[in-house]
Amino acid sequence: IFTACKSRGSNLRVHFKNTRETAQAIKGMHIRKANKYLRDVVVKHQCVPFRRYNGGVGRCAQAKQFGWTQGRWPKKSAEFLLHMLKNAESNAELKGLDVDSLVIEHIQVNKAPKMRRRTYRAHGRINPYMSSPCHIEMILTEKEQIVPKPEEEVAQKKKVLPLIVKFTHFSNSGRFFNPSDQNLIRGCRSRVE
Question: Taking 70 as the threshold, does the pLDDT of residue 169 lie above it?
C-alpha cells in the first residue's frame, strides 16, 4: 500500500544556499501550511530564518517567531519549492493518497555542478562569474491518524497489577534473597527472625 509520494528536480537555476534554508524551514510541515508559508515568503509576510548560510544576513523581527534573529525572503527559492510541492501533490493524487493529510517527511537540497560565465575587470582581466544551481528532492507521507484505544483493552490493563518482589538484605553476609522463596527462608530461619 502506498503512503508516500515524492518530487525531485535536478540542476535547477536557483541559489543553493537560499534554497537550502527555505527547505529546512518547511521540513516537517503539513502540505497546506507549507504552501501558505511559501506564499507568505514571496509577499514578505513571513521570513525564512537563515541558520547555516547566514554570513552577512541582516536581522529581522519576523525571524523571532522561529527563535532566530537573521532572516530573508528568498522569493525565487520559495517559488521553486511551491512548484515542487504542487508536483508532489499531483503525484499523490495519482497514487490515490489523501492529499489533505500529507506531511513533508523528507526534503533535501544538494549542490549541482556550477555553471560558468565571465565578468570583465580592470586592466583587461577576466574573472569567473559562476552560478550555484541545486538539486531538490522531497518525500511526502500521509500523517498517521491518532486512534484512541478501545475501552475494553484499557479496562483489562488496569486489572493486571505488576508483581512486586521485595528483597531483604542479610546484615552480616551482604547477600540478598527473595522473601517468597521458601527454601531460603527454611535454611535461614534463625537469621530472618
Answer: no
Instruction: Give the number of other CB atoms < 10 A from CB of residue 22.
Output: 29
- In this prediction, residues 177-183 reach a mean pLDDT of 56
User: How much is the pLDDT for 192?
Assistant: 45
Structural domain boundaries in the chain: 4-142, 151-192
Amino acid 16 reads F
What is the C-alpha separation between 50 and 24, in angstroms, rounded?
Answer: 9
Distance between CA atoms of residues 58 and 48, nearest Å: 12
Q: What is the pLDDT, as a whole number, of residue 164?
A: 57
CATH number, domain 4-142, options 3.90.470.10, 3.40.50.1010, 3.40.190.170, 3.30.70.20: 3.90.470.10
| Rounded CA separation 98/1 (Å) | 13
Burial class (CB in 10 A: 0-12, 13-18, 19+), 54: middle
Give the whole-number percent of the chain exceeding pLDDT 90. Answer: 72
Measure the CA–CA gap between 39 and 189, rounded to whole angstroms: 80
CB contact burial 96-117 (16+ within 10 A = b; e otherwise): ebeeebbbbbebebeebeeeee
The neighbouring-strand residues paired with 111 are 134
What are the tens digits of pLDDT across the range 129-161? 999 999 999 999 998 777 777 777 766 666 655
